[in-house]
């Protein structure tokens, strides 16, 4: 199979890899996969060692340019993407009818046009595209970061560290840099899913008095795990000392955290968002923070991302903004890439995926 070796070398020079243990197999018979980002090593290794796919990778930590993506997906059988790639009709059309599996290295799937994917599945069983995603493996890391962000915001850690470093630290003063504590508080969770529960479990030892939540409907099994009480959205706003947005971004949750919510919240309350920037109306949040309608906000996610450095929210001392790092631990990112790779391979084989999004 000398010609296979020659072809392999040529393909490798052009950024195409053939993920085969040997190179005896007919390359043309292997499904073609495009990976839109240099994902963490575990995922790439799984794809490379599988011997099941011809792999092409956007070998960079920066997003693949849209034009390049549209060019590269053409004729692919599988696509592994991250949340910065909007997978819409244009991408699906560019890929064409060969595309059978889409695997995203994220639990959030608001970057995938579900309507388009459903439409294709409904039209013809042969155009069905199966979708894999990465729930659970990131829950611990995201919950942990949410607690860190909540404490950093409520106990004013960023402000305090800045004061210490820049000479603002005078004598010990009775009211200086005071914040709000979790002990005896009411914590409200908007969207009691995996991450919402994991956050509450971590907050419980801080002697939180009461957990309340709202969701599309009561979720008794999850609520029982943390003794949380189902309330209306208005009551969540009125009663929470800390309110954490943990819901998925959908058309229904777009800007759900708006003037109406903030104006119902206590002046002493802290708002935290580690879900998606789109669930917050940022103009309304700015107003609420600037006018003292609420005490503070901690955001891991914004619209857009990155948030421009001259954005008004950056001018506020009572707003802590992180650059979307909730799942950013080495262990978790590796686990996400491994799960995304395994989902992709299973889908291409026609097997059950470890985590499949049922459209
Ligand atoms: N900041 C990050 O890096 C990061 C990392 C992981 C996940 N996330 C976000 O966190 C979200 C939650 O993840 P999860 O694993 O807990 O998902 P999940 O599906 O277990 O939980 C989402 C919850 O939101 C609820 N929800 C949906 N629509 C709602 C509505 N209209 N009103 C109230 N609740 C509603 C769902 O019913 C569900 O209980 C993801 O969708 C993702 O966007 C962010």
Tags for this model:
7-stranded parallel sheet, 36% helix, disordered N terminus, 15% strand, D-isomer_DH_CS1, alpha/beta, binds nicotinamide-adenine-dinucleotide, Rossmann fold, 359 residues, elongated
Structure, explained:
With 359 residues, this protein is an alpha/beta fold. It has 2 domains: 32-137 and 332-357, NAD(P)-binding Rossmann-like Domain (Rossmann fold, 3-Layer(aba) Sandwich), CATH 3.40.50.720; 157-164 and 177-317, Rossmann fold, CATH 3.40.50. It is 36% helix and 15% strand. It has 13 helices and 14 strands. It has helices at 2-13, 41-50, 66-72, 89-95, 114-123, 139-154, 157-165, 194-203, 220-226, 233-239, 259-264, 282-290, 330-349; strands at residues 16-19, 32-35, 53-57, 78-81, 101-104, 130-132, 186-190, 210-214, 228-230, 242-245, 270-273, 296-299, 319-321, 356-357. The chain has a 7-stranded mixed beta sheet with strand order 1-3-2-4-5-6-14. A 7-stranded parallel beta sheet has the order 9-8-7-10-11-12-13, sandwiched between helices. Helix 8 (194-203) packs parallel to helix 9. The longest helix has 20 residues, at 330-349. The radius of gyration is 23 Å and the shape is elongated. The protein starts with a helix and ends with a strand. GO terms for molecular function: glyoxylate reductase (NADPH) activity; hydroxypyruvate reductase (NADH) activity; NAD binding. InterPro entries: D-isomer_2-hydroxyacid_DH, D-isomer_2_OHA_DH_cat_dom, D-isomer_DH_CS, D-isomer_DH_CS1, D-isomer_DH_NAD-bd, NAD(P)-bd_dom_sf. This is Glyoxylate reductase/hydroxypyruvate reductase.
